[in-house]
Amino acid sequence: MSIGKDSMLVINESIDELYNLFKKERDSLFRDRLHFLYLLKKDSTKSMTSIAQELGRDRTTLYNWLSLYKSKGLSGYIAPIKHDFHKSAIRGEILESLKEKLKEEKGFSSYGEIVTWLKDEHNLIMNYKAVHHFVRYKLKSKLKVARPVNIKKDAKKEEEFKKNCLK
């Protein structure tokens, strides 16, 4: 196995154990990782380039996997990846005041107005896209914007139309 002169790698798991784990694994990333270990254990004379071609991965990816296996062992090697997403800037007191403002009859007429309100009232600077996504999809709120009305609309014809339609 040509993984470097000074880096001795000992794979503690047996070929059968790796093969069984590989067959049971549903996640494609971890399946590829287990396949990689299986190939290394099965034929230690194979080059990283040939294994990379067989797996359809880059050699640097395989070297990263090796260092992960060395440092964390098999349990860390196939453990689910936990993402540490940041918390929203709109939370706590700011979130409550925004919800109250959105419930008001007048409310906001645009997301740009919300951006300005957050900056003026709470000294919170956010971009338009983030505010739009948060208000529309996280809070599931819509802006209070009246629909446009035709200026040439005839009120008498509208009333007559409503009377005839309700019969």
Q: Mind explaining what this structure looks like?
A:
This protein is mainly α and 167 residues long. 58% of the residues lie in helices and 0% in strands. The protein contains eight helices and no strands. Helix 1 packs antiparallel against helix 2 and helix 6 (111-122) packs across helix 7 (128-138). The radius of gyration is 30 Å and the shape is elongated. The termini are far apart.
Give a brief outline of the structure:
The chain is mainly α. It contains 8 helices and no strands. The protein is elongated.
Which tags fit this structure?
167 residues, 0% strand, single chain, mainly alpha, Arc Repressor Mutant, subunit A, 58% helix
Could you name the CATH topology of the domain at 15-77?
A: Arc Repressor Mutant, subunit A
Average pLDDT, to the nearest integer?
Answer: 86
CATH class of the domain at 15-77: Mainly Alpha
What class would the helix/strand composition place it in? mainly alpha
Number of helices: 8
Task: Chart the SSEs and their pairings.
Layout: H1 15-24, H2 28-42, H3 48-55, H4 59-77, H5 93-103, H6 111-122, H7 128-138, H8 155-165
